[in-house]
Specification:
The chain is an alpha+beta fold and 399 residues long. Helices cover 65% and strands 10% of the residues. A hairpin with a 3-residue loop joins strand 2 and strand 3.
Length: 399
C-alpha cells in the first residue's frame, strides 16, 4: 500500500482510532532505548521501568476527552519514572509533547495559560534536578513551545477548512438558486412563446375556417386559399411547438434532433401573408437603413407583430391592417395599425405581453386609438443593439 493510500485511510479514520495509533507510535518510540544495545555504565533496562513508560503512554488514548487530565497524568508519571526508577532516558519527552499539543488545540484560553505556566515550571524543575544545563533547558522549552504552536496552528487550519467548506456550500447553494431562477425564467419565456404561437395559429385558423364555407359558395378560389392558409398555419404552429417542447424535455431521447432557429424579421412577410390569406388585408412596409438590430431583438419584433396581428384577428373586426417597420439610427420602431373597432376588446393579456417583451430590451410600447381616433395602434420602440456576426445570423442562436 502506498503512503498516499495510508494517508487517505488515516484521514478517514475516526478520532479514537487516530488516538490509538498515536499512542502505539509513541510507545514504539519510547521502546527504542530498551531494545538497542546499551553501554555497561548506563542504567539497566528493566521490565519495571518499561512498564512505567507504558503507563505514561496509556492516557494518550483519552487525550481528546480530557486533555488537561491526560497532561497532568503524564507529568506525574514522568516525574515518578525520573525520580524513583533509574531506567533508560528518552531522547524526547514524547508523551508530554503530545499531551501539551492536545491542550493547546482543544482547551480554553484560561486552561491553556495555566497549563503552559505549569508545564514550564515542570521543565525547569526537571532540568534543574537532572543536569542544570542551559542548553538542555533551552531545548526542552523550545520543543514544548513548538508543540504549543503546532496545537494552535491546528485550530487555525481547522477553522480555515470549515470556512472554505462553508463557502463552498454557500456557492453551491447560490449556483443552485441561480440555476432554478434561470430555469424558471426560461420556462416563463417558453410559456409566453407557446401562448403567442397557439393564440396566433388558432385565431387565424378559426377566422379562415369560418370564412371558408362562405367563400366556397361565392369565390371558390378564395376558399382554396383559405384552406391552404389553415394547413400552412397549422404546420408552422406544430413545428414551433415541437421545438419548444423539445427544450422542455427532461431527458434528451434524440440528442442530435434538429432545432429550428427563432423566427426573425425575414419571417414577418410570411406571417403577414398568412394573416391576410383568410382575414383582413395586411400591408407590410420597411423603412430605414435595414441594418440587423440583433437576433434577440428580431425574435422579439416578430413575436410583437404576431401578437398584434392576433389581437386584430380576434378582437378588432378590421378590414385592413398596416404593419410598418422603421430602422432608425438608434432604435427600431414597429407599428401595427388597424381600422377596426378600436380599444376595448379582449382581455389585455396580449398587450401586456407586448409591453413585457419590449421592456426586456429596454424599449417602450404605446397602445391606443389609431389616426383620427379610428381603429387601434400598437407602437413599439426598441433601442438598437450591436449587429450579430454572419455566423450568428446563419445559426439563428439568440443570446
Amino acid at each position: 500500500m502506498s503512503p498516499r493510500d495510508l494517508a487517505a485511510r488515516a484521514r478517514g479514520a475516526g478520532p479514537r482510532t487516530v488516538d490509538l495509533l498515536i499512542a502505539l507510535l509513541v510507545q514504539a518510540a519510547m521502546t527504542m532505548p530498551f531494545v538497542v544495545p546499551r553501554a555497561p555504565d548506563l542504567p539497566e533496562a528493566t521490565w519495571t521501568s518499561y512498564g512505567l513508560t507504558t503507563l505514561m503512554v496509556l492516557p494518550l488514548v483519552a487525550r481528546r476527552r480530557a486533555p488537561v487530565a491526560v497532561l497532568l497524568a503524564v507529568l506525574v508519571t514522568g516525574g515518578l519514572y525520573r525520580f524513583t526508577i533509574d531506567g533508560p532516558g528518552q531522547p524526547l519527552p514524547y508523551t508530554g509533547l503530545v499531551a501539551f499539543y492536545t491542550v493547546a488545540e482543544l482547551s480554553s484560553p484560561p486552561k491553556r495559560s495555566g497549563i503552559a505556566v505549569l508545564t514550564a515550571l515542570a521543565v525547569l524543575f526537571s532540568v534543574g534536578l537532572d543536569s542544570d544545563a542551559l542548553r538542555e533547558l533551552l531545548f526542552s522549552l523550545f520543543v514544548f513551545a513548538a508543540a504549543y504552536a503546532f496545537g494552535r496552528l491546528a485550530v487555525t487550519r481547522k477553522a480555515y477548512l470549515r470556512a472554505v467548506e462553508d463557502r463552498a456550500r454557500q456557492l453551491e447553494l447560490t449556483h443552485l438558486i441561480e440555476a432554478e431562477q434561470a430555469a424558471a425564467r426560461e420556462r416563463a419565456r417558453i410559456a409566453r412563446e407557446m401562448h403567442d404561437v397557439l393564440s396566433h395559429a388558432v385565431s387565424l385558423m378559426i377566422v379562415q375556417a369560418e370564412a371558408g364555407p362562405v367563400a366556397v359558395r361565392t369565390a371558390p378560389e378564395r376558399a382554396e386559399a383559405a384552406f391552404d392558409a389553415i394547413s400552412e398555419t397549422g404546420r408552422d404552429a406544430m413545428v414551433q411547438l415541437r421545438r419548444m417542447l423539445g427544450v422542455l424535455r427532461d431527458g434528451e431521447d434524440e440528442p442530435d434532433a434538429p432545432r429550428e432557429p427563432q423566427p426573425l424579421l425575414d419571417g414577418v412577410p410570411g406571417l403577414v401573408e398568412r394573416v391576410g390569406a383568410g382575414g383582413p388585408k395586411v400591408s407590410y412596409e420597411v423603412t430605414g437603413d435595414g441594418l440587423p438590430p440583433g437576433l434577440a431583438v428580431e425574435a422579439t419584433v416578430y413575436r410583437i407583430v404576431q401578437e398584434a396581428l392576433t389581437n386584430v384577428v380576434r378582437h378588432a373586426e378590421a378590414s385592413s391592417v398596416r404593419v410598418r417597420l422603421e430602422h432608425g439610427h438608434d432604435a427600431l420602431t414597429v407599428t401595427v395599425t388597424d381600422d377596426g373597432r378600436g380599444p376595448g376588446g379582449g382581455s389585455g393579456l396580449g398587450l401586456t405581453g407586448i409591453r413585457e417583451r419590449a421592456a426586456a430590451h429596454g424599449g417602450t410600447a404605446r397602445t391606443g386609438p389609431g389616426p383620427d381616433g379610428r381603429g387601434f395602434r400598437v407602437a413599439v420602440t426598441i433601442p438598437r443593439a450591436r449587429p450579430e456576426s454572419a455566423t450568428e445570423r446563419r445559426t439563428g442562436v439568440v443570446r
